[in-house]
């Protein structure tokens, strides 16, 4: 923090700063340092080890796109697993769907869940206490290796591939996720900002291709994840869900709508269009 500015330095050639009106609280957790600031423009900003996880201003974009695109593409999601996601925002969006009967949250750091329950309740908005929710405190890679349950949707809402989140970008983890999916099941994940982290697209592609017939990406523009579009990873045993027609997605949304501020059926379809500069990273 420099004179009421919080600086996030993810790259050696670029960083971003937020003016801070108040530091709300900061704790040294057993796994990660957790801090919460109040900022003009972005609202409350949650950081883990100095890296932004969520801002109350723009989290809706990220959470809506990782939740609603696969749910409407699949068409009948009943069971979901969120790996990471300790702030509860992903659970909140997934549980908007009445079809969802069971949502398992696998978070490595109990301190994040406790901290967010206490200081950031608007993000989970009651989702931790929803009767459909089960919270498991465990490393996602170990949980998935032991898991005998099948999910219609696995959402990997992880930190970047450094620190504890690193294992959630590995081939053994993707292989176990494939085993824990129902036949039409889908895996999505946050896959970085291609303009700055293009190798994440290449690596995920290579590590998923052996285990899924359909591996792809879709895009969302999230202001705090700077550098242009953010890539959201997609993997499934078939292309059916990803290639559902616009009419089908519109009909599913009309039949079972949820309140959104970013997601629409048109944005759903458009988000799979990849510019050539991003396509270049696929199959490298
Ligand atoms: N939207 C966020 C982003 O990309 O900046 C991700 C938010 S969410 C808070 C990320 C969560 O993943 C953190 O709470 C972190 O503790 C959790 N996490 C990191 N590595 C994990 C692992 N191996 N297993 C389960 N959870 C993990």
TrEMBL record:
Catalytic site: 157 (proton acceptor)
The protein's Enzyme Commission number: 2.5.1.16
Keywords: Cytoplasm, Membrane, Polyamine biosynthesis, Spermidine biosynthesis, Transferase, Transmembrane, Transmembrane helix
Taxon lineage: Bacteria, Pseudomonadati, Pseudomonadota, Alphaproteobacteria, Rhodospirillales
Record GO terms (molecular function): spermidine synthase activity
Function: Catalyzes the irreversible transfer of a propylamine group from the amino donor S-adenosylmethioninamine (decarboxy-AdoMet) to putrescine (1,4-diaminobutane) to yield spermidine.
A single GO BP: spermidine biosynthetic process
Record family assignment: Belongs to the spermidine/spermine synthase family.
Name of this chain's protein: Polyamine aminopropyltransferase
Binding-site residues for S-methyl-5'-thioadenosine, renumbered to this chain: 32, 107, 139-140, 164
Chief location of this protein within or outside the cell: membrane
GO annotation, cellular component aspect: cytosol; plasma membrane
Residues noted as binding spermidine in the record, renumbered to the chain: 63, 87, 157-160
Species this chain originates from: Magnetospirillum aberrantis SpK
Highest taxon above the source species: Bacteria
Gene, per the UniProt record: speE
Topology within the bilayer: Single-pass membrane protein
Keyword Cytoplasm: yes
Transmembrane segments: 215-235
Pathway entry: Amine and polyamine biosynthesis; spermidine biosynthesis; spermidine from putrescine: step 1/1
């Amino acid at each position: 923090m420099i004179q009421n500015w919080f600086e996030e330095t993810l790259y050696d050639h670029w960083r971003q700063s937020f003016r801070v009106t108040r530091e709300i609280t900061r704790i040294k957790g057993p796994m990660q340092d957790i801090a919460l600031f109040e900022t003009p423009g972005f609202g409350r900003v949650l950081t883990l080890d100095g890296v932004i996880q969520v801002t109350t201003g723009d989290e809706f974009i990220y959470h809506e796109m990782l939740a609603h695109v696969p749910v409407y593409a699949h068409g009948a999601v009943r069971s979901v697993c969120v790996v990471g996601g300790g702030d509860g925002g992903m659970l909140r969006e997934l549980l908007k769907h009445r079809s969802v009967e069971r949502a398992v949250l696998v978070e490595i750091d109990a301190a994040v869940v406790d901290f967010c329950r206490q200081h950031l309740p608007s993000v989970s908005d009651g989702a931790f206490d929803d009767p459909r929710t089960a919270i498991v405190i465990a490393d996602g890679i170990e949980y998935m290796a032991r898991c005998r349950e099948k999910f219609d949707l696995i959402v990997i809402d992880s930190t970047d591939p450094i620190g504890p989140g690193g294992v959630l970008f590995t081939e053994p983890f993707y292989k176990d996720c494939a085993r824990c999916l129902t036949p039409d099941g889908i895996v999505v994940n946050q896959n970085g900002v291609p303009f700055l982290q293009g190798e994440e697209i290449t690596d995920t592609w290579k590590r998923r291709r052996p285990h899924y017939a359909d591996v792809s990406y879709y895009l969302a523009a999230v202001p705090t994840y700077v550098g242009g579009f953010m890539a959201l990873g997609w993997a499934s045993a078939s292309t059916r869900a990803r290639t559902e027609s616009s009419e089908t997605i519109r009909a599913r949304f009309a039949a079972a709508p949820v309140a959104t501020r970013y997601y629409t059926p048109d944005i759903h379809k458009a988000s799979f269009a990849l510019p050539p500069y991003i396509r270049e990273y696929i199959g490298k």
